[in-house]
């Protein structure tokens, strides 16, 4: 493709007629290009219809045969140039141009802290292969759909730890989630209040328009030194919205022990506590007892907490019909010159 400069004589470059250059244009009136074959076709028809009705001049000829002279082809040059002139006019009328469009996106992101339960109960297999694995996969899908949002990660069992700070480095977040495994926190249990406190501590100085904590747990608060309700009130005080997700089924759930034996474990989710936390934090409580239900919960939160993206488009349009119009005028001048030289057959006019 020809790189355009602003020189006075750049239009004389034959690269204007290369296939790559012509294909690089956006054509305002592309239908005009379908008329290009018409110009040579009209001249061909004229030649065929006038072949037997040409003016003839009787002259005395010498004896013998007349051999073909290649110089006699010169008389067709003016017609060829005039055909090219018409075709270039059509190209100019089609209005070739190039459009350079730039899109500028701006967004005021949301701060989101994922707080994930990694206690031993997350090994239960009502989700395949287990609750924690499915929660990790759905969390990664949630991160993939965010734009310009800072997301952090807190994990908890009997204690709570910040695994990733608020960041827009989504690759780092996915790697952090992949690194989560059972036994990362030696002290087993479910310290929901402590986990919320760690998340709040990470977000309290945030200047984001919206701050959200998403808590995923399958049990009731059994550890830690902070009551979850008190933690929810702290979140409300820092203008942090709380979404709580209760994961897992009630009743007997299969679990494979260290010996490889599958046993049934009785489970019962404390919905009332998670619902109260969400109400205090002006968010919502969700129950997810299947993988699809958990995905639907995250999709719903994704819609509720959507970053507004402002998009500005800048279009720089540049026309190039002048180039082909200059070539057309140039060929017209050549045609007018040749019509007054020996090349033209006067009997044809």
UniProtKB/TrEMBL annotation:
Signal peptide: none
Coiled coil: none
VWFA domain ranges (all copies): 111-301
Segments passing through the bilayer: 27-52, 73-94
Keywords, in A-Z order: Cell membrane, Membrane, Transmembrane, Transmembrane helix
InterPro entries the record matches: UPF0353/GerABKA_families, vWA_BatA_type, VWF_A, vWFA_dom_sf
Name of the protein described by the UniProt record: VWA domain-containing protein
